[in-house]
Design brief:
Elements lengths: L5 H25 L7 E2 L1 E2 H28 L13 H13 L20 H26 L7 E2 L2 E2 H26 L8 H8 L6
Helix pairs in contact: 1-2, 2-4, 4-5
The structure holds protoporphyrin IX containing FE.
């Protein structure tokens, strides 16, 4: 099944590469202080690379949203079924118990259903909630003059920073779990090959 068109593969490759740069440079900036001037990457270099990767990520994100609006790939991100919650439960049970007993996948991949319910929910939360919040708070930190000065007596910049690092943390955790769940295809490498070749294979 041809499920990953070229544009989604290009988007995903750029997105993953930019995320890795943002995580390394973000952690470097977070843990750099006067005594420890270069944690993994020197501070000045980390700022430069973080800003560069962020701009590429934003342009790439606009490409992702536009692509999903204009092509049929967008339909895989829609939650329509009434029994979505019970489907989520089934998938969760499969990942936590069924899979280890060799049970069959409750939601096999078809042309109509590229993602299982848990995948769909986490992709929606990551791409349409966490990434936009990460981007908005990042713009707030890049341009502090446009960020609100105080919010209920607390510095707007500190709140923006907390939102930014919280989203960065959640998305880093998402990425680790995402890579692990991508090993749960027919073979541990099947889903990775799918993202390279465009074709999903059940065997
Ligand atoms: C080195 C890091 C990464 C690897 C190895 C990786 C691997 C994969 C693989 C194998 C797939 C295809 C399986 C599937 O359809 O679920 C996939 C899809 C996807 N990944 Fe990743 N990923 C990485 C990073 C990320 C990051 C950082 C994000 C978002 C913040 C992300 C978001 C997505 C999304 C939304 C899809 C579905 C795309 C679509 O078909 O519409 N990935 N990834």
């Amino acid at each position: 099944m041809y499920l990953y068109p070229k544009w989604i593969r290009v988007w995903h490759l750029i997105n993953a590469a930019m995320f890795l740069i943002l995580i390394v440079t973000g952690i470097s900036m977070q843990y750099t202080d006067k005594e420890n001037a270069s944690y993994v990457v020197g501070f000045a270099k980390a700022v430069k690379w973080h800003n560069f990767a962020a701009i590429v990520l934003v342009l790439n994100y606009i490409f992702f949203v536009t692509g999903n609006l204009l092509t049929k790939n967008g339909r895989y991100y829609r939650i329509g079924r009434k029994d979505f919650m019970s489907d989520l439960g089934k998938q969760f049970k499969y990942y936590s118990v069924g899979m280890f007993k060799g049970e069959k996948h409750p939601f096999p991949v078809t042309e109509e259903r590229k993602f299982n319910p848990l995948q769909k929910l986490t992709y929606i939360l990551a791409m349409y909630v966490a990434v936009p919040l990460l981007i908005i708070s990042g713009i707030g930190l890049l341009l502090p003059e446009i960020t609100i000065k105080t919010f209920f007596g607390v510095s707007g910049l500190i709140l923006t920073d907390i939102l930014h690092i919280t989203m960065g943390f959640f998305l880093s955790i998402f990425m680790i779990i995402h890579i692990y769940t991508c090993t749960l295809g027919a073979k541990p490498t099947s889903l990775f090959w799918g993202m390279i070749s465009g074709y999903h294979r059940e065997e």
